[in-house]
Amino acid sequence: MTAAAPPRLRAVNIDCNWTYEYERSRFGPAGVDLFLHKARGEDEVIRACAGADIVLLENADQPFSARIIGTLDRCRAIIRYGVGVDNIDVAAATQAGIIVANAADFCTEEVSDHAVALTLALARRVLAMDHYVRAGGWADFPRAGMRRISHLTLGLVGYGRIARAVARKMAGFEMKILAADPFVTQAEPGSPVVLAPLERLFAEADLVSVHTPLLADTRGLIGERLLRLMKPTACLINTSRGPVVDEPALIRALQEKWIAGAALDVTVEEPLAASSPLRQLPGVILTPHHGAFSEDAMDHLRRTVGDTVEALGRGFWPPYPVNPKVRPRVPLQVRPA
């Protein structure tokens, strides 16, 4: 007699946004069936997740609370289609023996490219010049304060994958680069980056680019105290998470000219309210949280999620566990290299 096949696992995507032929082609051979939902609100999510072995989340603004996690009687893993997991109660999942995994290597190139583009646009006042020309101006554009980029200092708040990519790309401009990260004790050998306290970074940098994840101790991190340390000619760039910046303090800093400008791919409220002063303030560049996007990045993301579900279906640890010290409900092996 042949041994009975192991029971197939149930993967539930609670906020699907596209078609899933690729996912099914990866999940199916690993013994995982995919079920699609568009759940909104805790009660809908709880109903959608009933009987799930694996839960997939796409949207960064879809909360996945301790209450939801407490109902997941057989769930082995929660997988985020993306990098940030601030919408998931990771502590509650860990306590329940549920692995939380993400696509940690997703969009590093895209977000760093976007941060570089916004940084250069601010430094060269590209948007201001565009508006000036469209309004009929030309050679009389006010050029006071424009400086050679190699004479400026770039500050990186956080020094993880994306910030390191920004540093690598901006190093070609021969800028001085400072980075502040409480979890990093030294820069890579040969790197032009100088690690510095946060206060020094804000006081010295001409361009401050934010790359820290949204955690309890980074929410509102960049508020009045740090903004007042900045030079009146300095600018802030944020491509990480909107709530890392105290938005009312930033608006006041721009209105009262504590700083010269800002470029934001992320805001506290998304979409940004039509009434937000950020829409009207000069010296502000706004993009619609698309810094992570490219067709190549989305293909990469889906491959990584496919790798993650396939590993779990075959009894292996996923490639990017967020809580690697969790004691999983179902024992897993380390996949051979």
A few lines on this structure:
The protein is of the alpha/beta class and 337 residues long. Helix content is 29%, strand content 15%. The model has no long low-confidence stretch (mean pLDDT 96).
- Overall average residue pLDDT: 96
Radius of gyration: 22 Å
Strand neighbour order, sheet with most strands: 8-7-6-9-10-11-12
- What is the 3D shape? elongated
Name of the CATH superfamily of the largest domain = NAD(P)-binding Rossmann-like Domain
Question: What gap, in angstroms, lies between the N and C termini?
Answer: 34 Å
| Number of separate structural domains | 2
Under the CATH scheme, which architecture of the largest domain would be assigned? 3-Layer(aba) Sandwich
- Tell me about the biggest sheet? 7 strands, parallel
Low-confidence stretches: none
Instruction: Tell me the strand percentage band.
Output: 5-15%
SSE series: EHEHEHEHEHHEHEEHEHEHEEH
User: What fold name stands as the CATH topology of the largest domain?
Assistant: Rossmann fold
- The CATH class name of the largest domain reads Alpha Beta
What percentage of residues falls in helices of 4 or more residues?
25-40%
- Coarse structural class: alpha/beta
Count the E strands: 12
Number of helices: 11
